[in-house]
Amino acid sequence: MRVIVIGAGLGGLCLAQGLRRAGVDVTVHEKDPGVTARFQGFRIGLAEQGRAALRGCLPEDLYSLVEATLGDMTGPARAVDPRLRPLHEQPTEGATAADRHVLRHILLAGLDDALCFGQELTGYHVRSDGRVEARFADGSTTTADLLVGADGVNSAVRARLAPAVRPHDTGVRFVIGRTPLTDRFAGLVPGFGTRVVDRDVSMLLGLMRFRRPPREAAAELTPGLSLPGTADYLRWAMLLPPGQAPEPGRDGAQRTVLARTEGWHPEVRAVVEAADPDNSTLLSIRVVRPGQRWPLGPVTLLGDAIHATSPSGGNGANTALRDADLLRSLLVDAHAGRRTLPDAVDAYEHRMLRYGAEAVEHSLTALGPFLPVPAPLAPSQP
Fold this sequence. Notes:
Elements: E1 2-6, H1 10-21, E2 25-30, E3 43-46, H2 48-57, H3 60-68, E4 71-73, E5 77-80, E6 86-90, E7 95-99, H4 100-108, E8 115-117, E9 121-126, E10 132-136, E11 141-144, E12 146-149, H5 156-161, E13 168-180, H6 183-186, E14 193-197, E15 202-208, H7 214-221, E16 233-240, H8 252-260, H9 266-273, E17 281-287, E18 299-301, H10 304-307, H11 316-335, H12 341-367
Parallel strand pairs: 1-2, 1-12, 2-8, 5-14, 12-18
Antiparallel strand pairs: 3-7, 4-7, 5-6, 9-10, 10-11, 13-16, 13-17, 14-15, 15-16
């Protein structure tokens, strides 16, 4: 069996790791020229669902490295006013966070000969023998038994396979940034996270405090693997009122947030002032709702390509990893002759489309309380 994965994000790489571990021939094709070609985001919540998927797909040493580089989020989630006066607290169960950039480097480990950066998919067609041929912008082609579109919200695979399913812009914008963690700033987030609530904006604060520094952990657990030298940081995000965009320029995101926080507690403003402008950016919240199922064949979808969620609810990456582990287990059965490939794809899509749709709805429901004013969310697709 041969599988080609389009997209080297967390879900696609997790699937590739699991298939490679089981002896399946797999290659990953990514349109970006390299792993650091664009902004990759910051801290993500990693629930037990996501950790279980990583356990199922990764070699033992790489999974141990994942665990060593997580951050623990303990204590209640709290809300405060702009002067840091308490509003309310909500108890939380033990949770963990992962730095997306570090986690992606771990998922890339050992896949060098299976990775093809700088290859943008331009199309594919299903051959008369039931296999699928993918075409790339550089003129190359490759053929496989299964093509997996793990290429994100703007999926080129989805555009061909399920053209009626399109991203929906919720209209919600937020500025996200990263500030080096100091004892001074750590006090702003004594528990799971802190939400600063004003009349027309909200600001979310969360820590990424690694259990062990990534490079130190890699040197001991996976000698020879180099991880980013990312230090502990405070991740902050401000949800902007509808229609507002950040000021232009390298530090425009920070200046926008500072303008919105005049009169706020100086410690909150100091966090923004100390942030790295190169790691501060504007993001839009778009979702993809799974629509009517496409005809069964040698092409399928994974992660944000078919069920992109709002970041609220913390289930986007976890659901993509769940996809990867589920598809891996079914394809391994097909590879071993315990079921046919079409049966494996059918079983995957049946389950994934159901829980993927639930994840999108959950994320939109969770987004509502963070919005200071009503904003139009994605309408249900027929």
